[in-house]
Amino acid sequence: MCLAAILLLSTQSAFAYPPDNAAVLYYRACLFYQSDKAMMSKVTDLLKGRIEVDEDIKKYVATNGHTIDSALTAADVKNCDWGVDYSKGFSTVLPHYVPLRDIAKLILADAKILAAQGDYETALSHCVSIHKMARHVSDGIIISYLVGIAFEDLANNCIQNILADMPQDSEALTCFKNELVDIETRTPSMKAAVSKDFKAWSADARIEKKDELLRFLNDECLSFPEYASERLKNADEEFFERNRDYSQNFVNQQIAAFDLAYEQAYTRLKELSEIPSKDAAKNPDATLTVALVPAVGKLYGQGIKVQTFSNAIRAAVDIYIIMAKTGRLPDELPAGLPKDLFSSEDFEYEKIDDGFILRCQGKDLLKDEIHEYEFKIKK
């Protein structure tokens, strides 16, 4: 009787599929995942263009069919709550990103297989799913953001390769363009990641967590100096309050810098990164900021690089559409296309024998180089 009652009460939710929380399906995909390090190494080589699709890769992807299906369904679910309790501070347990990374690679390997079979629309749709997955994964602290933009970069490289092999089909390309437009407003947010990171660590920056915090910093923070350790040993409630205030002000300045143009933002973030370490020796209020708040200049640069690649992909798709409709590449870059975020200007456009190049006008100050993206045309 009890079992029957439970079944009756659960019937409605049992048949509600997919669930309204994508994380449930991602966790399900991880349970299905058949891990094989040697095969994942081959899949990575495939995505990097070192090898072509072979029968072993096809079999491995097919073995993980349920994993791929579950993750693709999850990507289309708007809400994604991973169930992370950030109030635990340094004890917070994050989603296990390694299998999620492998699953993303499997989906892109399947995209490569589909493209080789001539199903370019589904292959490109798989790549869009990885962009959606990136948005789900990145909705957390800084490490989550970094995993998210890594997924975006993987997807962009796969799209670039598929477009190079794809016959000119304006209808399929327009459909793909619309899918990209649908997700462009949901780019992974570094602002949100930095803000959540601060809230997570500040949960432990309290007097009742002093001993735990001291153990963590002495064990994990190689740059935590002796004078800082002594300050923390003798800290009172006022010490923690003043350190939280100093850190909040520092984080607010970092977040404000993200709204500046790239070169100004990079310069400002670099300046900010040096302030806490200069302050800390004389100012006890800066003690925890030096140890716990990351300098995000390099991370900001990585994000701009990936977002610029995404913009180049979207601009390239418009050029491919023109090629498909007219039979020739445009002589000039069409107006209104996504921009190079390093300069906030249009990409430089150059036609070459087998396609075209979109080149940044601004330099990546982190790498000290100008990025360019080559898109080939299938003859």
Protein architecture, described:
The protein has 379 residues and is mainly alpha-helical. It folds into 2 domains: 18-188, no CATH class; 200-295, no CATH class. The chain has 16 helices and 3 strands. The protein has a 3-stranded antiparallel beta sheet with strand order 1-2-3. β1 (348-352) and β2 form a beta hairpin. α6 runs parallel beside α8 (142-165). The protein is globular.
Features of the shown structure:
mainly alpha; 3-stranded antiparallel β-sheet; single chain; 379 residues; 16 helices; 2 domains; disordered N terminus; 4% strand
Total DSSP E strands: 3
Q: In DSSP terms, counting alpha (H) and pi (I) runs of 4 or more, how many helices? A: 16
Largest sheet: 3 strands, antiparallel
What's the end-to-end separation, in Å? 69 Å
How many domains? The number is 2
Strand order of the largest sheet: 1-2-3
Give the low-confidence spans: 1-13
Proportion of strand residues:
under 5%
- Rg from alpha-carbon coordinates: 24 Å
Helical content band? 55-70%
Structural class: mainly alpha
Order of helices and strands: HHHHHHHHHHHHHHHHEEE
Summed up, what is this model?
With 379 residues, this protein is mainly alpha-helical. The protein is built from 16 helices and three strands.
Describe the SSE topology.
Layout: H1 2-14, H2 22-32, H3 37-47, H4 55-63, H5 65-75, H6 97-116, H7 120-137, H8 142-165, H9 170-184, H10 190-202, H11 210-220, H12 226-233, H13 237-257, H14 262-280, H15 287-292, H16 297-326, E1 348-352, E2 355-359, E3 372-376
Antiparallel strand pairs: 1-2, 2-3
